[in-house]
From TrEMBL:
It holds the Pfam family AA_permease_2. Gene3D superfamilies: Amino acid/polyamine transporter I. GO terms for cellular component: membrane. InterPro entries: AA/rel_permease1, AminoAcid_Transporter. The chain crosses the membrane at residues 23-43, 63-83, 104-126, 138-158, 170-186, 245-265, 285-308, 341-363, 369-389, 401-421, 427-447. The keyword tRNA processing does not apply. One of its GO terms (molecular function) is L-amino acid transmembrane transporter activity. It is a multi-pass membrane protein. This is Amino acid permease. It comes from the Bacteria. Keywords: Membrane, Transmembrane, Transmembrane helix. It comes from Enterococcus florum.
Length: 452
């Protein structure tokens, strides 16, 4: 899962304050992979196994999730390159559909997406911390709150402190992955793994429901592709290197995810993996032994802590931006900065919402809800690529999605499939997400009237 960077990019000759085109292909490729890989690869395997029930369907879900993400990234990058404005997806939605849908996206990100990410990651951090030190279940929520609050305090010291912390923890997300893949695949397999025939396991509702639920779970791990198009303004050759970096980066991530899950499945049976909140630690323990497993688990904890930092850094800046534009109640407060130029009131708001979510939801519940809500807007972005090709053919597009309109259609169909299957499989969860998003409607009209 990704750390979200909302950068200002340039599409033409750099002017004062704009980014310079100094990035070549390989730095762009590594940036894509480093941005998207997060905590989901360690902890979503358990929920994918639970909803698919078989090795073959489990691996198919990760494979198709990667392909949809490749098409999604290639599609969304066209708008990122053509509309290089601060706010990213907010500006794409506003350009294609108007201010109201754009506000709802911002509202959903402020109230659901960023707080739910922080809450879910804090819960998984606390769960692994509890298991590592054999604490009681009653400690999970307090540890999660401390984790989220401590990250917020680090960010209150300034963006430089948050950015330095993010750079340090980046290494720790790669080390456990490499160790699990290399030693897990070299180790003599203890579990028989079969990929043929591709079928759902017993008691999961059949092929289509299992695949839909599996895709929804993997999307949390692949999330972050919407922002890779923001590299366009820093690439020397965006038309050539942007699609290569996105496709190559996400394909590389897909390979890593497939290898990690293959190592999991060679170490644990599907029933052992399904719903096992401690799966990553147990797999590490079986591969490396007791002490080695604990060391790998500590590396995973640092990785998750760093991912929380990424969502905290970017999450607090969205209500701040909306406050500057007077789009939310108490905008004057949300737009306040501390002496380190950090939007501390906006940060406190996001932390309070995240803590409330920790009280009522677990990791999988929160991640599934945030994925469902954000994919509504992702799908609108894919449609917007086609819409703007027709309504604004003169718009300068330094990069155009290849194989148009096939790749955008794959992304659209994939997004619609995820949304429909979520409505079928998790109707109540989907309705809660939609209801919270809909609460922004009266807020929008109230602020419109107030600002007249």
């Amino acid at each position: 899962m990704a750390t979200h960077q909302q950068d200002v990019v340039a599409t033409s000759k750099p002017q004062e304050g704009e980014l310079k085109r100094t990035m070549s292909f390989f730095p762009a490729l590594s940036t894509v992979m480093g941005t998207v890989i997060g905590a989901g690869v360690f902890f979503k395997a358990a929920s994918v196994a639970a909803v698919t029930g078989s090795t073959s369907m489990h691996m198919l879900s990760w494979f198709l999730g990667g392909l949809i993400s490749v098409c999604a990234g290639l599609t969304g990058a066209e708008l990122a390159a053509a509309i290089p404005e601060t706010g990213g997806m907010l500006r794409y939605i506003e350009r294609a559909y108007g201010k109201f849908p754009s506000f709802l996206l911002g509202w959903a990100q402020v109230i659901i997406y960023f707080p739910a990410n922080v809450a879910a990651l804090s819960i998984i951090f606390a769960t692994q911390f509890k298991n590592l030190f054999a604490l009681s279940d009653a400690t999970i929520v307090p540890i999660a709150i401390v984790a989220a609050a401590s990250i917020m305090l680090i960010n209150f010291l300034g963006s430089k402190a948050g950015g330095m912390f993010q750079s340090v923890t980046l290494v720790f997300k790669l080390i456990p992955l490499a160790l699990i893949v290399i030693f897990g695949l070299l180790r003599q397999g203890t579990v028989e793994v079969s990929l043929i025939p591709v079928q759902a396991g017993p008691g999961v509702g059949g092929f289509a429901p299992a695949l839909g639920a599996g895709l929804l779970a993997t999307m949390f791990a692949y999330d972050g592709w919407i922002h890779v198009g923001n590299l366009a303004g820093e690439l020397k050759k965006p038309a050539k290197d942007l699609p290569r970096a996105i496709a190559g980066g996400i394909l590389g991530i897909m390979v890593v995810y497939l290898l990690v899950n293959w190592a999991y499945l060679r170490t644990m049976t599907v029933p052992e993996l399904a719903g096992n909140e401690n799966a990553a630690m147990e797999v590490a323990g079986r591969i490396f032994g007791g002490m080695g497993g604990r060391l790998v688990t500590i590396g995973i904890l640092v990785s998750v802590y760093g991912t929380i930092n990424g969502y905290t850094m970017t999450g607090m800046r969205l209500p701040y931006t909306m406050g500057l534009e007077n789009q939310l109640p108490f905008s004057n407060q949300l737009a306040k900065l501390n002496r380190n130029a950090v939007p501390y009131v906006a940060g406190i708001l996001e932390l309070v919402i995240a803590i409330a979510m920790m009280m009522v939801g677990g990791f999988d519940l929160l991640t599934d809800m945030l994925v469902f809500v954000i994919w509504i807007f992702y799908t609108l972005v894919f449609i917007a690529v086609i819409k703007l090709r027709k309504t604004e053919p003169e718009l300068h597009r330094p990069y155009k999605v290849p194989l148009y309109p096939i790749i955008p259609m794959v992304a659209i169909v994939g997004g619609i499939f995820i949304l429909i299957m979520t409505l079928i499989n998790q109707f109540s969860l989907a309705m809660v997400g939609l209801l919270i998003t809909a609460l922004g409607i009266p807020i929008y009209f109230y602020m419109m009237k107030k600002n007249q």
